């Protein structure tokens, strides 16, 4: 239901769902699930090496979007995929991107192994 709302489609509409295990030097660091409206891209074979390159070729490239960042803990399945312990810290980023015409083109949730991330930000008065 959240995916349909984010993509502004009906719950019964076709979608393309991509689930990927992201690695760095062979080490699993994130689990990513992307959902795209089926009327934009109907088959994973159309994507090749780059989702955004494929969307660009289909004149459906995202031009704007928003992200939500939150903390969570790993489930047993996530921990197994990322070679971690269940209950380990995760950073979760949800992303919703829109095309130039304002229609949603992507809803992605990436679940990062918290052991590999450290953020620093600058502050100025």
List keywords for this structure.
single chain; 41% strand; 3 helices; five-stranded antiparallel sheet; alpha+beta; 5 strands; 125 residues
- Portion of residues in beta strands equals 35-45%
Oligomeric category: single chain
Mean pLDDT: 92
Q: Rough shape?
A: globular
Strand order of the largest sheet: 1-2-5-4-3
Provide the gyration radius in Å.
16 Å
Number of helices: 3
Structural class determined from secondary elements: alpha+beta
Query: Could you give a short account of the major beta sheet?
Result: 5 strands, antiparallel
First CA to last CA: what distance?
A: 42 Å
Condensed summary:
The chain is of the alpha+beta class and 125 residues long. Helices cover 15% and strands 41% of the residues.
Structure notes:
This protein is of the alpha+beta class and 125 residues long. The protein contains 3 helices and 5 strands; from the N terminus they run αββαβαββ. Strands 1-2-5-4-3 form a 5-stranded antiparallel beta sheet. A hairpin with a 5-residue loop joins β4 and β5.
Secondary structure: elements and pairs:
Blueprint (H helix, E strand, L loop, with lengths): L1 H6 L7 E10 L2 E11 L13 H7 L6 E10 L2 H6 L7 E10 L5 E10 L12
């Amino acid at each position: 239901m959240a995916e349909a709302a984010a993509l502004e489609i009906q719950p019964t509409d076709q979608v393309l769902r991509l689930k990927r295990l992201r690695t760095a030097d062979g080490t699993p660091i994130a689990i990513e699930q992307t959902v795209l409206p089926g009327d934009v891209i109907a088959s994973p074979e159309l994507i090749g090496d780059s989702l955004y390159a494929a969307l660009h070729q289909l004149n459906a490239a995202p031009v704007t979007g928003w992200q939500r960042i939150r903390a969570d803990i790993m489930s047993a399945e996530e921990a197994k995929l990322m070679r971690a312990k269940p209950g380990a810290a995760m950073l979760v980023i949800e992303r919703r991107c829109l095309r130039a015409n304002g229609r949603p083109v992507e809803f992605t949730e990436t679940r990062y192994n918290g052991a590999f991330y450290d953020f620093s930000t600058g502050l100025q008065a």
